[in-house]
Amino acid sequence: MAIPDHERRLHELFAASIALNAELSLDVLLQRLVETAASITQAQYGALGVIDENGDRLERFITTGIDPEGHSLIGNLPRGRGILGVLIRDAKPLRLDRIGDDTRAVGFPANHPPMAAFLGVPVMMRGVAYGNLYLTEKAGGVPFTAEDQELVELLAAQAAVAIENARLYQSAKRWSRQLESLHEVMRSLVEEMDLDRLLALVCVRLRDLIGARVALVSLASADGDLRIAAVDAESGTQAELIGYRLRRGESKSGHVLERRQSARVDSMLDDPEVDHEEARRIGARTGVFVPLIARGEAIGVIAVHDKLGPDGRFTDEDLRLAEIFAARAAVAVSLSERVARDTLRRVVEAQELERRRLARELHDETGQALTSILLGVRAIRRAGSPADAEQAESDVREQIVQALQDVRALAVELRPTALDDFGLVPAIERLAETFQERSGLETMVQANIDGRLPAEIETVLYRVVQEALTNVAKHANAERVSIVLRSRDDSVAATIDDDGRGFAINGVRQEALGLLGMRERLALVGGTLEVESSPDSGTTIAAQVPV
Known about the structure:
Elements: H1 5-22, H2 26-41, E1 43-51, E2 58-64, H3 68-74, H4 82-89, E3 94-96, E4 118-125, E5 128-138, H5 146-191, H6 195-210, E6 212-220, E7 226-233, E8 245-246, H7 252-259, E9 263-265, H8 276-282, E10 287-294, E11 297-307, H9 316-381, H10 386-414, H11 417-421, H12 424-439, E12 442-447, H13 455-476, E13 480-487, E14 491-498, H14 515-523, E15 528-534, E16 538-546
Parallel strand pairs: 12-13
Antiparallel strand pairs: 1-2, 1-5, 3-4, 4-5, 6-7, 6-11, 7-8, 9-10, 10-11, 13-14, 14-16, 15-16
C-alpha cells in the first residue's frame, strides 16, 4: 500500500529533524538544512542566507541545486537585495507564484538559472532571525502550496534548535582552544625571557583563534612612532615587516595608541585614519586594532587583519579576544622591560664588585710584590760583597717571576687570550690545568665541539665554567671535577660535575653560589641552566645554549 504523499513528507521531516539535532558541525548542519527543505518541497533550487550581526545583509549563502561551475558563472553570491531582502527586513514567510511579478524584485545576474515560484521562510532563534530559507522552482512548474510552507516552517523551528546546539558546541570548543592558548601564553610569561619569541607566540595563537590572514604586534619606540616587533601570517612569518615603522600621528595603530581605545575597521582603504601605504605594505583590507596598556602607559598595539571568510570582516567576539591577548602581551612587554633593567643593574653591580676585587688584588698582591722588588734592587746596590749581591739578585728574580705569574693570572681572569686566539675548548683546557695546579683537585675535560662558536656564546660558557670551578674550590670539598663540552644539533652544552659535598638546592640563596649570575649570563644568549645537588652526592651544573 503506497504511503500518502503528505504522510511521506512528514516522515521525511521527522527523520531530518533527528539528523539535524545530532549534527554538531554548523557548516554541515546548514547544508543539510537547505537540502532537506528542497527535498520535502520538491524544489529544484534551495538556499539558506545567514544574516550578519547588524541584521541588514547576508554574510553567508549556502545553496543546493547549482553546481560549482554554475556558481562560478554567476559570480558573487547575493547579499540581500530584492526579494531576498524582503525577508531580512520583515521576518515572515513569503510565497510567490512568480518572482518577476513582484514589484520588489530586482532581477537576476547574468548566467543565473531562471526561477519563478518562490517560498521564503525565516529561521528564528529566541525571536531573532538567524537566516532565511529560500526555495524556488517546485517540480512540475507549479507554485508552492500552503502545506509546503507549513512543512518548511516546522523544519525551520527544528533547525533553530539544532543550530543553537551546534553554535553552543562550537563556542565551547572555541573557548577551550582559547583557554589552552591563553594558558600557553601565561606559562610563557613565566618561563620565556625572550620578548620577541613571546610576542611571536601571541601573534601565532591570536591569528589561529580568530582565523585571520595576519596578526602583528607594534611597540612604541623612543622617537614616538611604532615599530612592528612580531608578525605571523597565513603564508608564514613575514620577516620583512619586522622593524617596519608606523607613523604615530598618521597610522591607524598610532591613533588607537593615542586614544587608548580598540577599533574595528571593515574597509582599510575607506577609513580616513588608515595610512594607505601601511595598508598596502601589509596587504590588509580589514582590521582589528587593540592598544597595549601597562601600568597606565600606552606601549604598543596589536593588529589583526583580514578575517578568513567571504567578506573578511571581524566580529565583536574577535575584538574581545584580541583585547584579552593584548592584556597578556602588555604584561609581557612590561615584565621584559623591568627584567632587562634589573638584569642590567645586577650586571653593573657585579662588574663593580669584580673591579673592586681586582683593585684589591693589584694593591695588596701586585703592589706589595713591586714594593718588594724595589727594596730588593736597593739591597743589590748596598750589598757588601759579590756573594751578597748575587743572593739579592736571585731574590729579586724570584719576586719578579711571582709578580709576573700573578699579573698573568689576573689577565686570564679578565680575558683569557686562548679564548680569543683558539676558541672555547683550548681555553677551557687551559683553565682546567691552572685550576688543577692551584687547587690540587683532579680536573678532567672532555669535548666534542668542532670549530669555533659565536664569540658571545664562547665567552658566556667560559664564564659559567669558571664560576662553577670557583664554587667547587670554595665550597665543595671535592677530590675530582669533570668538565664536559658537547655540541648537539642546534645547541651546545657545558656540564660541570664534582664529587664533593653538595647542598640542598632549596636551602641556598642563588646569589650565594653565583647561580643567579650564571642564569642571567646564559639568558642573554637564550641559554638555560640546570643544577642538581644534594648533601651526599655532589653537584652537577648543566648549561645549554642554542646555536
